[in-house]
Specification:
It is a single chain. Helices cover 36% and strands 19% of the residues. The longest helix has 22 residues. The chain is built from twelve helices and 15 strands. The protein is elongated and about 70 Å long. By secondary structure, it is α/β, with parallel strands linked by helices. Bound molecules: 6-O-phosphono-beta-D-fructofuranose. 6-O-phosphono-beta-D-fructofuranose binds next to strand 12.
Length: 379
């Protein structure tokens, strides 16, 4: 056991997801009950660390939150303290490194180690704080399940439940009205949510970023179903899906965010294309639903409550062992560690790492099984 540690801090960065509160609870309870550490939580991700917005945490502060979506510590995906965006009164934007302010705040609170819970952007800054000598432990977070080096992130399975229930609900209207119902789901440039959610929700077509689709093949599947007597079809589309001859659909650019591109709208595009290719033949109406932020919220499911508890508790064990600059990971269903540099890359301090996402293998078991039961991916 590392005798030096008396006080730890934690923060949650990036978008929220189910299971964050369960992780916070596990961190605080393990820190206090197992190691007798003091715990301080910084509010609103890195911005709270910069502004010294904090809350002292004890067992009461984490009571009754295990099942709740969101994070009692609040989230922000805007603040890279190593490349901090400021806007003056005239609207001029400048970027500077304000990480020393955050480090001074950690020292002021006598924090010996910092647990950072977040996705690739948040973990890149975790790497950078570690480079500056802060005792950092990372916990990967995203509903997209695309963090490299870990088999599963908490929040993913709860999001899958939302997708499955949405597809179940859409099936009834699809059947009753002989319609084509399209569901667009999240996932950025990884298709896990659409793939596993689509399989669980019995989608006839699943479109994912890893397999660019030919809209004619999608239309053919719907027509084949119609001609064989199944006069409805259900399509599950990842927000990052793209046609063979085109690119992703961008919903908006959020300049205040380190990762500015927000995907969205491919479901509507596919719907419009099917209006032309299928409706004139079958007369079927097409309706599109974007499940959106419902996937990130709600009551945390059984699996994620347990996984989050393992993640949070293991992170504190890592602090006690002195496993700093590392992230908790699940490998072969076991909690393990990996260096954060090996997850987000060893790029320049301040540069947010992108592109290293863990993506679906188009020839892997999941896609093979789905194809085996007749699901079309448009390839
Ligand atoms: O990475 C998680 C995620 O929910 C993506 O699936 C989605 O594209 C993105 O975040 C949305 O981010 P924001 O909350 O900034 O709109």
């Amino acid at each position: 056991m590392n005798k030096e540690i008396k006080k730890i801090a934690l923060l949650t960065g990036g978008g929220d997801c189910s299971g964050l509160n369960a992780v916070i609870r596990a961190v605080v309870r393990t820190a206090i009950l197992k190691y007798n550490y003091e715990v301080v939580g910084f509010m609103g991700g890195y911005f709270g660390l910069y502004k010294d917005d904090y809350v002292d945490m004890d067992l009461r502060t984490v009571s009754g939150i295990l099942h709740q979506g969101g994070t009692i510590l609040k989230n922000s995906n805007k603040d890279n303290l190593f490349n901090f965006r400021s806007v003056d009164e005239d609207g001029n934007v400048t970027y500077s490194d304000v990480s020393d302010v955050a480090i001074a705040n950690l020292k002021k609170h006598n924090v010996d180690a910092l647990i950072i819970i977040g996705g690739d952007g948040t973990l890149t800054s975790a790497r950078d704080f570690s480079r500056k000598g802060i005792n950092v432990v990372g916990i990967p977070k995203t509903i997209d399940n695309d963090v490299p080096a870990t088999e599963i992130t908490f929040g993913y399975r709860t999001a899958l439940d939302h997708i499955m229930l949405a597809l179940d609900a859409l099936h009834t209207t699809a059947f009753s009205h002989d319609r084509i119902m399209i569901l667009e789901v999240m996932g950025r440039n990884a298709g896990w949510l659409a793939l596993e959610g689509g399989i669980a929700g019995s989608a006839d077509v699943i479109l994912i970023p890893e397999i660019p689709y030919d809209i004619k093949k999608v239309a053919q599947k719907v027509l084949d179903r119609y001609n064989s007597g199944s006069k409805f079809s259900v399509i599950c589309i990842s927000e990052g899906a793209k046609p063979i001859d085109g690119d992703v659909t961008i919903k908006m650019i959020d300049k205040s965010s380190a990762d500015s591109i927000r995907l969205g709208g491919v479901g509507e595009l596919v719907g419009k294309a099917l209006e032309k290719l299928v409706k004139p033949i079958t007369g079927q109406d097409i309706r599109t639903t974007n499940l959106g932020y419902i996937q990130r919220g709600g009551v945390t499911n059984t699996f994620d409550r347990v996984l989050s508890t393992k993640y949070g508790s293991y992170a504190v064990d890592m602090i006690a062992r002195g496993d700093f600059g590392q992230m908790v990971t699940v490998k072969h269903d076991k909690m393990q560690t990996v260096f954060i540099e090996d997850v987000v890359g060893s790029g320049k301090t301040g540069e947010t790492s992108r592109g290293g996402a863990r993506r679906v293998n188009p020839n892997g078991d999941l896609v093979t099984a789905a194809k085996g039961i007749g699901v079309v991916f448009g390839d």
